[in-house]
Specification:
By secondary structure, the chain is mainly beta. The chain is built from one helix and 39 strands. The chain has two domains: 209 residues; 144 residues, no CATH class. The radius of gyration is 25 Å and the shape is elongated.
């Protein structure tokens, strides 16, 4: 498929894009000639199982990928499976989806660039799925929107999103949906980087979530989980100078290794192992924390390093601190506090790292500082 090559000496040897789509049968591949781009202001509606194959060039000096084919928005329905390879999907106006998947359909994108050229107006989700559909991304880049309204997102409703080895400049929003992210970077500072609600589930491995927004009137945590389950493994949640980079209400977390700027749980359950928290940890409203080892650096964000209230339960083998706040730990009396070791470790305040000795072990420098209790009916033990 390519441009019209008709001349005085021979007939056209290529189809245009509409012809190729019309003629394609289930399972066919439409290959776009290198350097040719169909009209990008038209929506491509697909109800067949097909592959659209483009071409890329590699800049030998920068090693960057250059897409030679650009198409408009892709709308897939009718249980179709559509595979997109080596292509740029581009939308040019506000209130548009670049990828829209419905009717138990599946879009598989490999080495794909998604971008919006809209300069003003209102964003709709750049990626959208509903009705038991699936989106699978591998090596996909979603460029940030120039419209900073907090609505530029991958919105997944009653569907499944799988992303690997990708960079997304948009919010991921899950509603009664499932997601898997592996080796993914999400950067979005106009709202949450990841939002989950209505019994959604997500697994995030070896990934980087950088986002959230704080204004005088409202706060958007980098990761916000409501009535849902999130598993984080060796991943980072970044939102400095805030007390709830990872925020949960009626949520369940399993967190193994990784770095979180701050954590605030309300009526939630968290299982944490070998995790570093840069700023503060708050366990509220009958939440339950079960942990092996937690490192709290204590970088100032205006909050106490460790806080608990309203009959919450905190169980941990060790909680270690870098810099101490005053008080360093504050608990309501009805909190069940059961921590084997509370200690301060040697800490480099310049580069914000815990210091190890010549045997590659952390050095305990002091107790964990003042613990303040308030209210009634203290339950708990510490050493």
């Amino acid at each position: 498929m390519g441009p019209d090559d008709t001349s005085l000496f021979h007939k056209r040897t290529t189809w245009d894009f509409d012809q190729a789509l019309e003629k394609a049968a289930d399972g066919d591949t439409i290959e776009i000639q290198q350097g040719f781009s169909p009209q990008t202001d038209q929506i491509i509606r697909l109800k067949k199982n097909i592959t659209i194959q483009g071409h890329v060039q590699i800049n030998t000096e920068t090693n960057h990928r250059l897409f030679t084919n650009t198409i408009g928005a892709i709308f897939v329905s009718n249980q179709a499976q559509v595979t997109l390879k080596d292509i740029c999907i581009q939308i040019t106006s506000e209130k548009s989806n670049a990828i829209n998947v419905k009717g138990a359909s599946n879009v598989i994108a490999q080495r794909v660039l998604v971008e919006s050229l809209a300069q003003e107006g209102v964003n709709y989700p750049v990626i959208y799925a509903e009705d038991n559909s699936k989106i699978d991304f591998y090596d996909v880049t979603a460029q940030p929107s120039k419209i900073a309204d907090g609505n530029f997102s991958a919105f997944i409703l009653d569907s499944t999103l799988t992303v690997a080895n990708s960079w997304l400049g948009c919010r991921i929003s899950l509603s009664h949906s499932a997601a898997s992210l592996k080796e993914v970077t999400v950067v979005y500072h106009e709202s949450n980087a990841l939002y989950m609600e209505k019994e959604s589930t997500a697994t995030v491995i070896d990934s980087w979530l950088d986002g959230g927004k704080v204004t005088e009137k409202s706060n958007w945590p980098c990761v916000r989980v409501l009535d849902s389950k999130l598993t984080l493994t060796n991943s980072s949640v970044l939102q400095p100078n805030f007390n709830a980079a990872l925020s949960g209400k009626n949520a369940t977390f399993t967190i193994d290794q990784g770095n979180l700027d701050s954590v605030a749980l309300m009526s939630s359950v968290a299982h944490i192992s070998q995790v570093t928290i840069s700023e503060s940890l708050a366990i509220k409203a009958q939440s339950v924390l079960q942990a092996t080892t937690i490192f709290i650096k204590g970088i100032a964000n205006g909050n106490i390093n460790l806080f608990g209230n309203q009959q919450s339960k905190i169980q941990a083998d060790q909680i270690y601190f870098g810099m101490l706040t005053d008080p360093n730990i504050k608990m309501e009396q009805d909190v069940d506090l059961d921590v084997g070791t509370f200690k301060q470790l040697a800490y480099n305040q310049t580069n914000h790292t815990f210091i190890k000795n010549e045997k590659n072990l952390y050095t305990i420098t002091a107790d964990a500082g003042k613990i303040v209790f308030w209210g009634e009916a203290c339950i708990g033990t510490t050493e």
